Amino acid sequence: MTAALQLIVDALSVGSLYALSALGIGLIFGIMRLINFAHGEFIMVGAYAAMLTAAIWAPFAVIVAIAVALAVALLTERLAFRRLRASPPATLLITSFAVSYLLQNLMVLIEGARPQTVDFLSALTRSMDVGGVRLPWINVVTIAVTAVLLALLALFLRRTRFGRMTRAAASDFRMARLLGVRADRVIAIAFALSGLLAAAVAVLLLAQTGTVSPVMGLQLALVGFVATVIGGMGSLSGAVLGGLTVGVVTVLLQSLLPAELRPFRDAFVYGLVIAVLLVRPGGLFRSAAAMQERV
Amino acid sequence: MLRLEGVEVRYGQVRALRGVDLAVDEGGVVGIVGANGAGKSSLTLAIAGAAPVPIGQIAFEGRRIDGLAPETIARLGISLVPEGRHVFADMTVFENLDLGAASRSDRAEIARDMSRLFERFPILAERRDGLAGKLSGGEQQQLVIARALMARPRLLILDEPSLGLAPTMIDRVYDLIAEIRRERGLTMLIVEQNPERLHGLADRVLLLHTGELAGEIDTRQEGWDSAYFGLEEMPA
Fold it and tell me: Which member of A165, A174, A289 has the closest CB to residue B102?
């Protein structure tokens, strides 16, 4: 029982980071059909920003991380993607790779290629005792922050006009524009939200690992993309559930696989992803309402 | 009100429309008929700004609109109900209708329009908080027409409103369009495959054939259908 609770919290914690990454990627994909691999670099610059200001005051570092990730996300949209909006998806994909490598190499130029460590919110790495189970504070905080962020985002997307426009654009961008939804505005909102989510991942990841490197975002961007695919591309709730699923499956496999197979854990994860897509090509969580043709 | 001169639409090497001249006067209803692939949807998308117009001009109320973004054209007063309905399936009926007023900011008036539309479309009022994707095809068609009306358009373009609907539902949708026309005197451009549907509703019915306007059909005259179908059998 104790081990099971520990496992659940670990799984939800990893799943939370994947869900936030997937949502950041899913928002942009839904609207622009752009698989933004540079999302990992939004996380990376946020983490560096937090690292560089961590010594001043942790809450200040969090604010700086948010501001920097948000600014980089918006600048990327304005300078790289806006002019290419009508281009084929392959052009957008290649541009996102270019932006990704550009940001990585810029960081190598500024801070060097080697990973750096920092003492950031290290108190959170201590554990608390819940009925005999030792749970790291950082895992609980990660789950709580994710839950609060998702609740706030859901409120924004469901209760505000801009939120509804963003959801409509993510579902059917051309129809939304035909109704008068301004493309520039809704895309800027999506990139801002994507930057905000990346900053949250950056801060939580830095608090967990205390390490930054120019390539730290790559894995998260890849997992985030996979999660949006298995969640059902174009579905925001699907992206979140897809992220959680990939995280939970990853942690469960890490725990349940025989020790000699654990190094190949990711092969099992991606094998499962292929199996899921063979059975449900539209993704696990794409709603029946969205897929059904009505007469 | 709407004027097209020599409009051409291309998708790569394919010319979907060629030299289309068309005028829709204020308060008028113009029908466009044609077979699959005749270019009907390309015509509606070109007017709404969602298809490229490399050659020719489109003007609305004296202002050139070809080359403008779809949202800009929508904000000028043109509402398109596209082929295939395009409801936002994962959003509620209320949310879909509210999005129809995306170009407006007069919240009190929007709420009043919404109430009026719920009176006119009682099935939508019943399903107000249900997902649009769960509605039947006919209900979805009513929803997208109501959604277009939320913008208070001056020109309403309907692209094959009967497509994919059961015959009884088609009658209901066309009755509804006729009622809206009577009540509001709204200028309309209606695209259909079946000219008969436009009888008594459209002032003029024009035939679109392989991307070109091929003349006017008078559905009141004897033998109009053989002329129409005869043309449709012509080799492309």
Answer: A165
pTM of the full structure:
0.81
Instruction: Between A295 and A43, name the one with better pLDDT.
Output: A43
Which string of b and e fits A251-285 if b means at least 16 CB within 10 Å? Answer: bbbbeeeeeeeeeebeebbeebbeebeeeeebbbb
d(CA A267, CA A279): 19
Q: Residue B187: in which H helix or E strand, if any?
A: strand B187-192
Q: Residue A164: which of B99, B135, B136 has the nearest Cβ? A: B99
* Interface contacts A/B by beta carbons within 8 Å: 93
At residue A249, does pLDDT exceed 80?
yes
Share of chain A above pLDDT 90, in %: 50
Residue B48 is predicted with a pLDDT of 95
Which residues sit opposite B209 in a β-bridge? B212
Check if B172 contacts A (Cβ < 8 Å).
no
Does the pLDDT at position B201 exceed 90?
no
Contact between A259 and A18 (Cβ < 8 Å): no
Q: Residue A187 above 70 pLDDT?
A: yes
Residue of A nearest to B169 (CA): A295
φ and ψ of B69, to 5 deg: -70, 150
Is B132 an interface residue toward A (CB < 8 Å)? Answer: yes
- Residue A134's pLDDT band (boundaries 50, 70, 90)? confident
Within a 10 A sphere around the Cβ of B229, how many other Cβ atoms? 11
Q: Phi/psi of residue B186, each to 5°?
A: -70, 140
C-alpha B104/C-alpha A123 separation (Å) is: 50
> What tokens does A276 get?
């899921």
d(CA B44, CA A98): 37
Helix residue ranges, H only, A2-38: 2-32
Taking all residues of chain B, what is their mean pLDDT, rounded to a whole number?
A: 88
Euclidean distance between CA atoms B152 and B147, whole angstroms: 10
Residue B225 scores a pLDDT above 80 = no
Q: How many CB atoms lie within 10 A of CB A162?
A: 13
Contact (Cβ atoms closer than 8 angstroms) between residue A244 and residue A143: no
Q: State whether A178 and B70 contact (CB < 8 Å).
A: yes
Query: Do residues B229 and B196 touch, judged by C-beta distance below 8 A?
Result: no
Q: What is the dihedral of CA B40, B42, B43, B47, to 10 degrees?
A: 150
Q: What is the ipTM of this complex?
A: 0.89
